[in-house]
Amino acid sequence: MTTHSPGLWRRAFAEALGTCLLVAIVVGSGIAAQQLSPNDVGLQLLQNSTATVLGLTVLILIFGPISGAHFNPVVSLVDWILGRRAGIGLSLKELGTYVASQTAGAIGGSVLANAMFEVSTSISDKDRATHGHLLGEIVATAGLILLIFSLAATKRGSLAAPAVGAYIGAAYWFTSSTSFANPAVTVGRIFSDTFAGIAPGSAPAFVLAQLIGAALGLGLLLLLFPAGSRGAEKVVVPHTVDKQA
């Protein structure tokens, strides 16, 4: 069977829709958790993290064959950086398109979740930018990058969906920040003043911490797998489809 990479517009749409649904899952389950367990923050986090683990795994399986299921600007950025070294991966134009699509999709996901639960779309006032939270974001993002690209480097991309879902679920609990680990999702969550929201004043620091974490994760990847970096065709899963599609 002859395969090829889908056109950029299809990949951009997949990234926008996938990120939209991811944020809808995160924010929507956060709203549901807050309504179902109003007096138990631990239970709220358990409900929120469980929905995110399951939803993210499914979304990677759906959209991975089209766009690679990045849903995350730092994943796309690292893919571009590694691609420059190997002559593969995303081009600069594709990187910009992916990031724009992911960010727009993330904002749309918050609006969608708010609408489903009949909550007004408003700017969050949940301040999260403490030193501990920012360190948590560095750790969470570094681990995510190392996981995704080590799977690609060792030709185990087929495990990405359950592995990434499991990692994010664990990082909800072992990081103080509850593991945003994603600049687009961070921006999207500004637009929901609910359990999963983040205040605009906290977002820039979170994004900076995520970029630092991505750089750290990339450094660890190159240290541990110096000859094994791969490009977008293996991240998160191969995005090739039947030529007739």
Description:
Helix 2 runs antiparallel to helix 6 and helix 3 packs antiparallel against helix 4. It is globular and about 50 Å long. It is mainly α and 245 residues long. The protein has 8 helices and 2 strands; from the N terminus they run E-H-H-H-H-H-H-H-H-E. The longest helix has 29 residues. Helices cover 66% and strands 2% of the residues. It has a two-stranded antiparallel sheet with strand order 1-2. The two termini are 12 Å apart.
Topology (elements, then pairings):
Blueprint: E1 3-4, H1 8-36, H2 41-67, H3 73-86, H4 92-116, H5 131-153, H6 160-174, H7 183-188, H8 203-224, E2 241-242
Antiparallel strand pairs: 1-2
Helix pairs in contact: 1-2, 1-4, 2-6, 3-4, 3-5, 5-6, 5-8
Average pLDDT over all residues:
91
Helix percentage range: 55-70%
Low-confidence stretches: none
Q: Helix/strand/pairing class, anyone?
A: mainly alpha
| Cα Rg | 17 Å
Sequence of strands across the biggest β-sheet: 1-2
Helix and strand element order: EHHHHHHHHE
Count of strand segments:
2
Sheet with the most strands? Answer: 2 strands, antiparallel
Number of helices, where a helix is a run of at least 4 consecutive DSSP H or I residues: 8
What global shape is seen?
Answer: globular
Distance between the termini: 12 Å
- The amount of beta strand, in percent, is under 5%
